[in-house]
Design goal:
Layout: E1 4-5, H1 7-11, E2 20-23, E3 26-29, H2 41-46, H3 53-59, H4 64-68, E4 74-78, H5 108-111, H6 126-136, H7 139-146, H8 153-160, E5 166-167, E6 182-184, E7 187-189, E8 193-195, H9 209-221, E9 228-230, H10 238-244, E10 251-255, H11 261-273, E11 278-282, H12 292-306, H13 313-323, H14 333-346, E12 352-358, H15 361-369, H16 371-374, E13 378-381, H17 395-408, E14 420-424, H18 430-438, E15 443-446, H19 448-480, E16 493-494
Parallel strand pairs: 1-4, 8-15, 9-10, 10-11, 11-12, 12-13, 13-14, 14-15
Antiparallel strand pairs: 2-3, 3-4, 5-16, 6-7
Helix pairs in contact: 6-19, 7-12, 9-10, 9-19, 11-14, 15-17, 18-19
Length: 510
Amino acid sequence: MTRVVTAQELGGHRGKDSCWMAILGKVYDLTDFLTEHPGGSAILLRHSGKDATKEFEKFHSEDMIERVLPESVIVGDFEEVGAGEAAPQSTVDDEEETPKASSAGNSTVASTEGISEVTIDMMLNAMDFKAVAEKKVSPEGWAYLYSAAGDEFSYAENEDAFARIAMVPRVLVDVSRVDCSTAVLSRHFDVPFYMTAVAMAKLYDRDGEKCVARGVSKMKRAGIDMPYMVPTLASCGLRDIMSACDPSLAKWYQLYVNPSEKVVESMITRIVDYGFTALFITVDAPELGTRERDMRVKVRQSAAVQGEAKQETAGVARAISSFISQSLCWENIPRISTMAREKSAARGGKIDIFLKGIHSPVDAVRAYRERHRLGVRGIVVSNHGARQVDTVKSGVQMLYECTRALGKAGWRGRSDPEFLVFVDGGVRRGTDILKCIALGASAVGIGRPFMTAMAAFGEEGMVRLASLLREDIITNMRLLGCRTLEELNEDFLDARAMEHPPPGKVRARY
């Protein structure tokens, strides 16, 4: 017979020595999980001895518990609240106050005082959305989204590097018709950018990835069809995300490889069953980078709850290591890609495999030369949003170096159907996207800006940002004298600064 836990009994287990919590009708003993929780122990202790269902649903999907916690931590069923009885609940009073916004980049909204109401029509660029979103997102959410490794030098460099590439317009060209559409993986898209994987979307909207899916679907209906890359660490269940997607939307999946082969096979089976057409294996995250901005929030929470400023970085690293393989290597890729392709073929489909997180021209060339053995269709040049290793080169700098090395190895550029190169990192404007395309990228990933647009104005904010980026691309194509993306190449750029990038000054940005 299943044990029933009353609200009174639950309330008697509050603290680090005995931490019980009710979630979705079950009571869990999370005492041994305190040091392993990726969000730190402080938030668990703050809600211990209570029904934390509402707080849990802000960040996680229902199936998260099954995937992370063993059955042995289940104490029993939580007793339904009877008449005249009140179960202890986590309340708004438990939460930290959301901070006021600070200035952010080239933003009229951030720098103008006295605006009583900010409307979506006032948003003119990605930085405007960021300024509004910072006022709405919790300290934890903002620190997670905008934290980067170390002194965050590489985060700044991701954006700054684009300014060192000069545009070279051509004149006296008939640009009455300009087309920024493209073909990627045998499919036509209206724009050359895509929504890349960003974890924990419930930190920025209560509907999380369901809101992201609705936003990208609305873009498609508005004539801005682009792919959506779903993250492994989504805060919504895959079924809910897929139900929110337009059925004809191009769906890609970002995969963190689990240490368990059984778990990997189960994940790939689900990916194939839901009709994903591309699988992006993350290869640059065997462990979580040192993200001090995020860590400082956890330290403050820990001090407030435990009375001591205790950093919980070890717990985060252990939690990451528990579900991301640290032994993933080149020899593992053929097995994963073969498994995915065979499962997809068995259902009459086709799935393309990419390596996401290539930093080095050496690795780029190896992936290209061994593409048939590895079973990969291409790579994503990326430094993981500068969240892993600080002082690595920017995404666009690595793109410049990788495409040159690939060309020497026989790669035919964007026209090569066997091997595609994508890039992400620091993209904020249409000109950034055009520079990436000119340097050889077939598509450009955008993450943080779409999250901040969603945090500011929901799915409509995402559509607005996509529209602004498309307009920026088309306007600058006309000004460059470029009518189609096929015409765009390095003749439209002066990228000599990429050969000898100036040394940067490391500085803390928070």
